[in-house]
């Protein structure tokens, strides 16, 4: 047995309260090295005297389940309950070579009766503290999100179009400075279409006053951009969405401000004498012209997002800045009843601020959803006191690397996705935002080389996973587009109700129909001997899905409830099928 590979970390993603009464444990061993893992557990204060009168621990034994196999590790899991809301536990590990070891808090021990009763080597969950349990909003787990880039979704009010607004042409290749006149009235006009699609969550890119078309350079956090409408229209839109059972998530940029903001303009005028100087990271004056190191201009005079001169970075360690941003965050919840914040460039803001932020917003709405934009492993933000979940770009990459780019074999993708599920607690995995494209990436159909069957297969695979799925506007219309800004074309409304729209709608409604299992159930990924990717979701019912990413048809038995490319018992390449039961 590979003893060096044995791993468990208490009070982490390996040991956590899932409900107030259930403890989930995970244990990790070398891949295909261990025959079984048993957990020995009991109340730390429950002891009885043996024949000699010495106290002996009282413990129960429960076999752990193999959750899945990763790149180099097997992952095991078990759910335990404790009548007195406290537990101690020890792992008994049996190798394929027949050896048996005990793995505990103080290290490895021989499997003897004496060692089994060595209380000091047991891991502890000292008490099931409900206040410390990581809580994520249950409603997110049954939500299908739809991401709206307001400037390109629909132009419902021509009177607020910016000067130089271009005609609405979905075939255009937009420039970075182009405007097409999309607004909130356009969204309101099409809420029924989104409801018909099956959507029950609206995720808006920023709507606050800003000079750009994308609005990630906020000028005024407390007003709707005039090109989008006003606060009365926003309130009407949110109310109409809520009436249709749709939650609303707004996007905020608290990492940096726009160049035209009152605060930054004051700094430009007054330099370090500005009352807002401490709101930013200033190093030298004059502040203009900006020194861009990418152009060989030397050290920047102030910190920015990337090296964007017009996006000066906020000093979120400053209590004044914190109080201002928390006021902003609270205002839109209290006044407009939004359900979630998506937080841009979230990984570049300090943890101290995010902890204050989380306490503030959840004090207003306990089931509020806080979504951070983090493109890498996110454990540091996902311990229940900062974000509910993050945008799951690592998941996106694994799917694209196999389905579209063929850089990873099916077995490798399955292993990587299994490992990724082990990074976070179950309740956290269930609210990660799973998407295959967004305003920051090329569109799925373009990455799939224009192959609708392939794009729909990858989308269906994503919809079968743990996590809250998100559809980028226009995917249901078969829209294409390369990297930003080409992925932000005006919406092609001529394809409403088209064959591709119907296929995407069927997928959304499938996810909604089985939302309880897909939102809360367990996930097991594997590859069959015939090369099919197999996904088993167990919850209210058992859903078993097969995805054929090989170059040949494969025989599959079963009565499918949702299919693509399945006929006469044969699953074609780019096909999938889902069986219930």
Automatic annotation (TrEMBL):
The keyword Hydrolase applies. Residues 147-511 form the Glycosyl hydrolase family 13 catalytic domain. CDD domains: AmyAc_CMD, E_set_CDase_PDE_N. One of its GO terms (molecular function) is hydrolase activity, hydrolyzing O-glycosyl compounds. The keyword Hydrolase applies. GO terms for biological process: carbohydrate metabolic process. Keywords: Glycosidase, Hydrolase. PANTHER family: ALPHA-AMYLASE FAMILY MEMBER, MALTODEXTRIN GLUCOSIDASE. This is Alpha-glycosidase.
């Amino acid at each position: 047995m590979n003893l060096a590979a044995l791993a468990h970390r208490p009070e982490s993603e390996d040991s956590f309260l899932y409900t107030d009464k259930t403890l989930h444990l995970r244990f990790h061993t070398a891949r295909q090295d261990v025959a079984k893992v048993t957990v020995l557990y009991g109340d730390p204060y429950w002891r009885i005297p043996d024949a000699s009168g010495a106290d002996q621990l009282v413990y129960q034994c429960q076999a752990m389940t193999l959750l899945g196999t990763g790149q180099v590790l097997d992952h095991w899991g078990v759910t335990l309950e404790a009548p007195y809301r406290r537990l101690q536990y020890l792992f008994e590990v049996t190798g394929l070579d027949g050896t048996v070891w005990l793995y505990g808090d103080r290290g490895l021990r021989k499997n003897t009766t004496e060692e089994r009763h060595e209380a000091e080597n047991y891991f502890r969950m000292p008490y099931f503290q409900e206040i410390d349990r990581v809580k994520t909003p249950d409603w997110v787990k049954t939500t299908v999100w739809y991401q709206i880039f307001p400037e390109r979704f629909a132009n419902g009010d021509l009177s607020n179009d910016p000067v130089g607004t271009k005609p609405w042409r979905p075939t255009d290749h937009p420039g970075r400075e182009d405007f097409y006149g999309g607004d909130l009235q356009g969204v309101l006009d099409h809420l029924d279409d989104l409801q018909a699609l099956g959507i029950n969550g609206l995720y808006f890119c920023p709507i606050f006053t800003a000079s750009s078309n994308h609005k990630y350079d906020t000028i005024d956090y407390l007003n709707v951009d005039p090109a989008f409408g006003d606060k009365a229209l926003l309130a009407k839109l949110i109310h109409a969405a809520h009436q249709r059972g749709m939650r609303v998530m707004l996007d905020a940029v608290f990492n940096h401000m726009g160049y035209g903001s009152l605060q930054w303009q004051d700094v430009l005028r007054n330099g370090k004498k500005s009352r807002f100087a401490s709101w930013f990271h200033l190093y030298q004056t004059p502040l203009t012209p900006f020194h861009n190191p990418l152009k060989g201009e030397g050290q920047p005079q102030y910190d920015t997002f990337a090296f964007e001169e017009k996006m000066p970075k906020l000093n979120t360690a400053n209590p004044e800045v914190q109080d201002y941003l928390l006021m902003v965050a609270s205002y839109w919840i209290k006044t407009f009843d939004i359900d979630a914040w998506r937080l841009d460039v979230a990984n570049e803001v300090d943890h101290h601020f995010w902890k204050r932020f989380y306490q503030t917003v959840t004090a207003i709405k306990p089931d509020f959803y806080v979504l951070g934009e983090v493109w890498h492993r996110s454990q540091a933000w996902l311990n229940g006191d900062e974000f509910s979940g993050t945008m799951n770009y690592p998941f996106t990459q694994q799917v694209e690397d196999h389905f579209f780019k063929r850089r990873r074999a099916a077995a490798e993708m399955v292993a990587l996705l299994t490992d990724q599920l082990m990074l976070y607690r179950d309740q956290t995995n269930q609210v990660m935002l799973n998407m295959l494209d967004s305003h920051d990436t090329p569109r799925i159909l373009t990455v799939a080389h224009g192959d609708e069957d392939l794009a729909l297969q990858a989308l269906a695979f994503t919809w079968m996973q743990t996590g809250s799925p998100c559809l980028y506007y226009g995917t249901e219309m078969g829209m294409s587009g390369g990297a930003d800004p080409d992925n932000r074309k005006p919406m092609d409304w001529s394809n409403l109700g088209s064959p591709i729209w119907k296929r995407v709608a069927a997928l959304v409604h499938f996810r909604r129909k089985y939302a309880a299992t897909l939102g809360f159930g367990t996930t097991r990924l594997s590859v069959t001997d015939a090369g099919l990717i197999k996904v088993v979701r167990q919850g209210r019912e058992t859903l078993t899905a097969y995805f054929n990413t090989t170059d040949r048809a494969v025989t599959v038995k079963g009565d499918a409830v949702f299919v693509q490319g399945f006929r006469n018992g044969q699953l074609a390449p780019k096909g999938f099928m889902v069986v219930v039961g």
